[in-house]
Amino acid sequence: MTLTTKEADTQTAPERERCSGILVHPTSFPSPYGIGDMGPGAYDFIDFLEETGQHLWQVLPLGPTGFGDSPYQSFSSFAGQPLIISPDQLKKLGLLTKEDLADIPEWDPDKVDYGPVIQYKTGLLKKAWSAFQHTPDKTLLEEFELFCEKERDWLDDYTLFMACKDYHEGRRWLEWEDEIRNPTAAVKEAWREKLSEAIHYYSFVQFMFDLQWKELRDYAHKHDVQIIGDIPIFVAPDSADVWSNKNLFQLDTKGYPTSVAGVPPDYFSATGQLWGNPLYDWDYHAETSYRWWVSRIRRQLSLTDYLRIDHFRGFEAYWAVPAGEETAVNGSWVKGPGEELFDAVARELGDELPILAEDLGVITPEVEHLRDSLGFPGMKVLQFGFENQADINYIPHHYTTCNCICYTGTHDNDTTMGWYAKQPEKIRDRIRRYGNTDGNQVSLDFIRFAMGSIARFAIFPMQDLLVLGSEARMNTPGVAAANWTFRYRQEALTEERRRWLLRTTRLYDRCDKDVPDAL
User: Fold this and answer.
1) CB atoms within 10 A of CB 369
2) Measured on CA atoms in the order 242, 245, 246, 250, is the torsion positive or negative?
3) Cα Rg of the chain (Å, integer)
């Protein structure tokens, strides 16, 4: 997979045939501000990757989150998450003062408490915006104007959407008055004038996200680390995407979905998962040459080197559930756009798209054919293979291609330590015999299994490297509360664990970094 979509002035890390890395969202980084951000904790993590021979960093979707705090339910498919903007970096720009950061609340270093964090970080961002309006830094002001012009295709609608949400006290757009719920161009312009202060604030926030993220991305590239991004196939119903592009979705005349997304009963849920996202009007997308999807992927590939597309099987066929159903049981499979969509993207962005396919769940031969015809690597999750002995696709000694990514687990799985503790003794015994191990640190055994596989990429969540139990789980599908909160402490990355990771990575030829004899 040749990277063909990066900006010409961006230094990218070289591709490698065989490498490994860590799955950890920026919200999980150590930080004094209640949530991980793009400050020192992020740069320390990049240094850690380089030191231990890792060349990949995988994140969850980077968009602004709404109710439930899920990265997979964002207010925009194009915008960045304000909560991971670093106050320390804002201070370096002269937009926050020492006094602004003097009275930091005492936060739980292991969990994000989103309600208070949102209130605190929003207060800091508004102080920074106030300072920005009076900054003498003309270069920064010019960069802001250039950013707003370059990204206006999505930024104008997103900032108006967010300003309107504030004006309506956070209510979803379907509850707004009809004039702005279904605005004409003239109405949008009138509301932009009416809410200009809030719109400029949200533009500033996106500028700061873009500036900080691309500095972090460039730092990663200089340290031979590539970033794997993540985009959900579907978008949140209460989003700028749906509000400003209703023709793209299956909606009734009032804007409500006629059918919604989900998956049938599977590994995670006996009644399936009813996600509730509006489904695409694929005929309309085809008529417009999939322009919205081209723009969406282009934007995300300006931030990352690869893209994992969540629920890839939905491009071959998706599970459509009639609106109003209480579970996903009574849905049906409907054909998706298939290769036609990706052919349109490739015409615009280059033939070899750096896309990874999340091909988990109900996978048919047709889905496999679509994945393979496009050359996209799929996912191999070790927990699935050991839990179901009949499913040999996920056990390393049955892999038939190196064009795949081997994971110990994903953000939707329990941690490997937590998962192992819940397994029957028969399965635990098999794992111990398979790895010639006592199972006391089984997550490290799983990392070895992934490293030793023929998979081109081996990736493991930070929780597995730190040998953490279920208390550190990132997400439990179907459970609305207490997700996405995991944080780790810098001191958890001990010298012993660093040495172990470098030795293991080098042993399985996933880095060319020399291992000192002392290690």
Assistant:
1) 13
2) negative
3) 23
Residue at token pair 């006391």: 440
**For 244-263, how does the pLDDT look when each residue is reduced to its tens digit (9 = 90+)?**
999 999 999 999 999 999 98
Look at residue 7 in the predicted model and tell me its pLDDT: 40
Distance of alpha carbon 281 from alpha carbon 346, whole angstroms: 21
Among candidate residues 37, 305, 316, 358, the one labeled active-site is: 358
Q: Is 311 left (phi over 0), alpha (psi -120 to 50) or beta?
A: left
What would the mean pLDDT of 342-350 be, rounded to a whole number?
97
Mean pLDDT of 1-27: 67
Active site residue 412: yes
CB 12 within 8 A of CB 226: yes
Cα-based distances in Å from 176 to 172, 217, 238, 254: 7, 38, 12, 12
Mean pLDDT of 229-247: 97
Contact 34, 117 (CB under 8 A): yes
Residues 6 or more apart in contact with residue 94 via CB below 8 angstroms: 131, 135, 137
pTM of the model: 0.95
The answer to whether 359 is a known catalytic residue is no
- Nearest Cα neighbor of 361 from 450, 288, 429, 261 is 261
Q: Is 44 a catalytic residue?
A: no
